[in-house]
Specification:
Blueprint: H1 2-19, E1 23-28, E2 31-36, E3 44-51, H2 55-63, H3 68-71, E4 75-85, E5 88-95, E6 103-113, E7 119-125, E8 137-138, E9 141-151, E10 154-165, H4 172-204
Parallel strand pairs: 6-8
Antiparallel strand pairs: 1-2, 2-3, 3-10, 4-5, 5-6, 6-7, 7-9, 9-10
Length: about 200
Amino acid sequence: MRIFYYIFCMILFAQPALAQDWVLHKQEDGILVYTKANGTDYPSIKVVGVVKTSMSAAVSLIMNVERFPEWIYKCRAARVLEKRSDTELIHYQVNSVPFAKDRDMVIHLVVKEDSLGDVMITQHALPDFIGFEKDLVRIPVYDAEWRLRSVPDGIEVLYTIMKADPGGDLPKRLINKAMIEGPFQTNSNMKRILEQNVVAGEKAR
């Protein structure tokens, strides 16, 4: 009987861990998009891929706020509010939302490098940093991280949105689509821009 008790306990205590595993939702063009329940209404999202580029080029693009509309999903405007150093800034951006009010957000962005040479770029929402626009809905929660690591083929990009809340009321079908398609398109656009720059540089030699 004791062996059955141990087996039962192992199965019982294993269930929460299994429920928290990342679930693959999309795999295309070398980009993988996963989600995982996090105890809120909106799951965590993880995107993994490899970009043929340099570390400096990847960091430069992510830090270039004015270029966000070129590659971040549904971003129609972005500007720096406060540059605290070469590795820390606060920026503002507006994202288009079909059939609903557009969203705006204020993000505190910080770049750090660890002892192994990996670069982490954290993003944290500051919803009360500036006044609210009457025609926009402020995104109240956004905690994300870019982790960049040098690999033989270029840079491995790991983008994780730990928590996010679009604010206000949005149709569930719209949220379900955006939470997969948004991170995928953002990383796909990033990859396209960075790899095009590499090709252009090679042709110029």
